[in-house]
Amino acid sequence: MLPGWIYIGIFAHVIIAIVFISSLLYYHYKSNTVAVQIATQVDKYLKEFGYDAAPFLPEWYNELSTIVKLDYPPNTVCVVVLSNADMFDKTLPCYISEHDPELKKGNDCVDLCTKHFMNKTVEELFPGEDIDIIYDWELQTNSRLPKINMSTVGHAAGLAFYNRPEDIEVPTWNTDKKMFGCSISPKYSGWFGYRAVLVFKNIQDDKIPYLPPHNAVETQELKTKLIDSFNKDWKDPAWRDIVYTDKRYSAEQLDYFNTIPAERMPKIKA
Fold it and tell me: pTM value?
């Protein structure tokens, strides 16, 4: 017969295992909410075209955004979509070859490509659903402010950490100077772009847990270097490489995004 302390030890380990498994099951239940299910559908549908998607709520966004707010009920299901390097290198050439007449009107082909796939997503996955689509380039009608702050959205959705100048403890720049923050993804570092937000106006989710983004740039020293580099010359890709990733822009893609929109079309090779 085994000593009593062994039975106590076995019993304790069993209890710990039960608690651990229960917590995992509870988290899975809490995570598998309507917002997560919708975002997963969008993400799977758009993945092959070079887009990623994640859910968020207006409540999370509005708590983070100081100026531009979302005027929807706090638990309204929203999905943010970003593009990675594959969108430009693999999807865009096919889109251009099929929609050449539209591009000759002087529209930005990346914007048109994004609109095409957002509309296609809504039509094929959610027919009849009342959905607002907000694009990264859109401005409010009564001001020059954007309709939505995409960097804040990405932070709220947990896709990328928004590194802000005001969070730097000892700035190396003149604090009277206007400085801009930048987002860094643990998956893509700085090699991505926010494209759109889908707002499911009639669907709400009060069960989805908020998961903060991974802070890939962990030290104040690296954050200072990141923001300083980004503001000195955002066209220099050094800031994009602050975190390692094997999914980087091609030279052609980098050149395209570093060019002002009015001069981009001649750089595209269909």
Answer: 0.85
